[in-house]
Amino acid sequence: MKLIIKALLAVFVVFILLRSCGPFLRGPNPLLGQLAPDFTLLTLSGRSESMNSVRAGQPAILFFWTTWCPHCRSQLAALNGQRADIEGQGIKVILVDVGEDSRKVKAYVDSENISYDSFLDKDGIVSEKYNIIGFPTFFLLSREGRVLSEEHALLPDYKEVLLEPGP
User: For labelling alongside 97, which of 24, 38, 107, 125 has CA 20 to 30 A away?
Assistant: First the structure.
């Protein structure tokens, strides 16, 4: 009986370790180098739009976030503060809030004076397509829409990555 309990406990521990370490064991996102999957969602402003129509052939910072995530909030504030510089470089910022209702997101965006609109991925369908494993997650997209990078903080050299001339 003790052997069975020890075996069950060992299986349980391995299961917990695999669940908690899964993001680190995943390896690189399979989307790297691929065209970013397009999606159509409602935005906070109430429009149904596609990511590619918003991107409009510009390099883009695609930012998956939530209001409950402290690091998301600080990264969003930094993006908001750099808006003029980012847009001046011809880079589009595309926000995707994951799993939250529009009233909660709107209340947060309004209280923090965030000037970007945000897609609302209420059911997490888009975040699944992008293999999101934690928040925040940034994807840097080329003019052509290829995924150049996946990060959990905005790269200090994001402009150089996004504005490099293509092949």
Answer: 24
Q: Are 49 and 40 in contact (CB under 8 A)?
A: yes
Give the helix/strand (H/E) hosting 65: strand 60-65
Q: How far apart, in whole angstroms, are the C-alpha atoms of residue 121 and residue 51?
A: 12
Question: Can you give the pLDDT at residue 164?
Answer: 74
Q: Rounded distance, CA 161 to CA 127, Å?
A: 23
pTM of the predicted model as reported, rounded to 2 decimal places: 0.83
Mean pLDDT of 5-29: 53
For 117, residues 6+ apart whose C-beta sits below 8 A from its C-beta are 43, 44, 45, 95
108 vs 104: CA distance, rounded Å:
6
Task: Give domain limits for the chain.
Answer: 34-155
Give domain 34-155's CATH architecture: 3-Layer(aba) Sandwich (3.40)
Q: Are 80 and 111 in contact (CB under 8 A)?
A: no
Quick check: 154 pLDDT over 80?
Answer: yes
